[in-house]
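Give me C-alpha cells for this 403-residue protein.
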Amino acid sequence: MWPFGVWVCLVSGTLAAAVEVGASDWPCWRGPDRNGVSQDAGLNWRWDTNNLPVLWKASVGKGFSSFAVADGRAYTMGNSDNADTVWCFDAEKGSVLWKHSYACELQPLSYEGGPGSTPAVANGRVYTFSKGGDLFCLDAADGRVEWAKKFDPWPRLEGDWKNTWRYAGSPLALGDRLYMSLGQAGMALTAKEGSTVWQSAAGHPGYSSPIPFRSGATAALAFFSGHAVIGAEAETGKRLWEIPWHTEWDFNAADPIIHDGSLFVSSGNNAGCALYDLAARPPRELWRNKSLKTPMCGAVLWQGHLYGFNDADLSCVEWSTGALKWSERSLRRGSLLVAEGRLVALSENGTLAVAPATPQGYKPILEARVMTGRCWTSPALARGRLYLRNAQGDVVCYDARTR
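Here you go.
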C-alpha cells in the first residue's frame, strides 16, 4: 500500500515528486499531474516560423502514442509490419538507447491504426499497453522485461456497440500500484510484480485513462467507461458513484477533469459536455451543453476556463457556467497542453500554434505548419524540449529553451 502522503502530493499538484522524477519531466500521459499542464518555465516561443530549432527526428511506426520523458530519456510506441515497438531515445540527442518489440495487429479501423496508449515511467520502470491488450513492465535502463500480461478483448455485453478500437487507456503508476482502464471501472495491479489487487466487472472500458482524485478522506480514481463515468476507491475498487454517459460507438476517449469537488466530462460525435457536483449523491448535474465536444484528447483546465478541441475547432469554455468564450475554426481536431499560461496546440493537419490561454480570444504568437499527415497525438513538453508526432510515426523534437 502506498504512503498516504504520496496521494496528497498527487492532488496538490506535485505528482512529479511522488513518482521520483525531476520537476520538469513529463513521465506519463498528459504530464506530471496528468492534466496537460507543463511545469517548464523560461520558454522561448518567438521562433522564426521558417526555421524551427529541431533537436532531432525519428520514425517509430504507425500509432498515436505520446511521449513519456524522464531522467534524460524519451519513450513512445509505434507499429510496423504488425509488430509494436517500445522506443527509448536519448531525450536531447535522439539516439536510440533501446527498443522492445512484440507481435501486435495494426488494426487500421477507419484510421491508420497502431498503439494509442502512452508509456508511464516510475521508479526505474516503464509501463506500456498495446491496443491488443499487451501490458509490459520494462526496466527503464535497458528495456529488459520485468513482467508481462495479456488481456483479451472484453466480452461484448448488451448495449455495447459492435465496432471497437480495442484498448487505448494509458497506465497510471502511483506508489506500489499500477492502475489500468480495464473492465467497467478499472483494475489495480502491484507495480513490481503485476499481480492483481482488484478488478472491476467485465465490460467496455472506454478509451480514456485513469484520473486520480480525493473523495473526502478517500483516495479515489475516475474511469470513463463505454457507458458511464465511474468513481472508485483506489484501495479496494469499490464504486463511489456512477454517472451515465452514452455516445455513438461508445467512443468515450477524453479524460474527465476533477477540480474543487466538480467533475467535467466531454465526448465528441456531437455528445457535448457537462459539469457535475460530486458532493451530491448521486452526483448532480450543474450544467450541460455542446460548447465543447472533445473526441480524443481531453481539454485542459487553466485559471477557471477549459481549452480543448471540438469535433471541428479549438474552443474556450468557462468552467463554472459552461459559457462559450470563443472558438477558432482555423485549428481543427487536434490536441494541446498549457505551458507558462500559453496554449501549445497541434492541429490535425500538423499546424503548431502558441497563444495566450485567455478567455478574451485566440491571439497566436506563433503558427507554423510543422508536420504532414494526420496529427492526433497530444504533444509533450519536458525541460524545454517539445515532442510531436504524426500518425505515420514521424517524430520531431523541437528546442523551446531560451538561448
